[in-house]
Amino acid sequence: MTSPRVDHAVHAASARQTLAKLSQELHHASVDHTLMVLINQRVSQINGCTFCLDMHGTTLRKLGVDPRKLDTLAGWDESPFFDERERAALAWAESLTHVATTRAPDAIYQALLPHFNETQIAELTYMIAIINAWNRIAVGLRSPLS
User: Fold this and answer.
1) 6-21 b/e with 16+ CB inside 10 Å = b?
2) How far apart are CA 35 and CA 89, in angstroms?
3) 64: Cβ–Cβ under 8 A, 6 or more apart, which residues?
4) pLDDT digits over 64-91, tens only?
5) What is the model's pLDDT at position 1?
6) 10: pLDDT confidence band, cut at 50, 70 and 90?
7) Rounded to 5°, angle at Cα 144 from 15 and 42
8) Whole-prediction pTM value?
9) Is 71 exposed, middle or buried (0-12, 13-18, 19+ CB in 10 A)?
10) Largest interatomic CA distance in the chain
11) Which bin fits 83, alpha (ψ -120 to 50), beta or left (φ > 0)?
12) DSSP 3-state helix, strand, coil percentages of the chain (rounded to 5)?
């Protein structure tokens, strides 16, 4: 375990508040809240953000998500516990999280279309961008678990 580097809530308070406000706004998105938190958890797994993994895992358990689903999230593409809608969203989340190598291919975007309208795709995309920002802040500045 490493020590925190910079307390961003103190030293970049306005920026943190702005990002938090944007995150809160997406809690009222038209996409199912549980799916949004599941995406946050998967992106946080990819990015190795312990702080976010703890927070989103706690939320998912409180929302009543099946423990087997949570346990197999890292292997969602092979797990029987995810439906096609969730698979499309998780594939999009992984693609955007690894955008430097994936370049967000058309096939992954096309898989969203039967399940999400344009507003929902935009909301998903913003949520993925925001959780990646939070992960980079928490990992880079070593946000401690409380």
Assistant:
1) eebeeeeeeebeebee
2) 8
3) none
4) 999 999 999 999 999 999 999 999 999 9
5) 60
6) confident
7) 80
8) 0.94
9) exposed
10) 45
11) beta
12) 70, 0, 30
The amino acid occupying position 106 is: D
What average pLDDT does this structure show over 16-31? 95
Closest CA to 107 of 87, 127, 80: 87
pLDDT digits (tens, 9 = 90+) for 30-73: 999 999 999 999 999 999 999 999 999 999 999 999 999 999 99
How much is the average pLDDT of 102-121?
Answer: 98
3 state SS of 32: coil
Residues 82/65, Cβ–Cβ less than 8 Å:
no
Give the torsion sign (CA, 40, 42, 46, 52): positive
57, 83 contact by CB (below 8 A): no
Residues 112, 26, 131, 102, Cα dihedral to 10°:
20
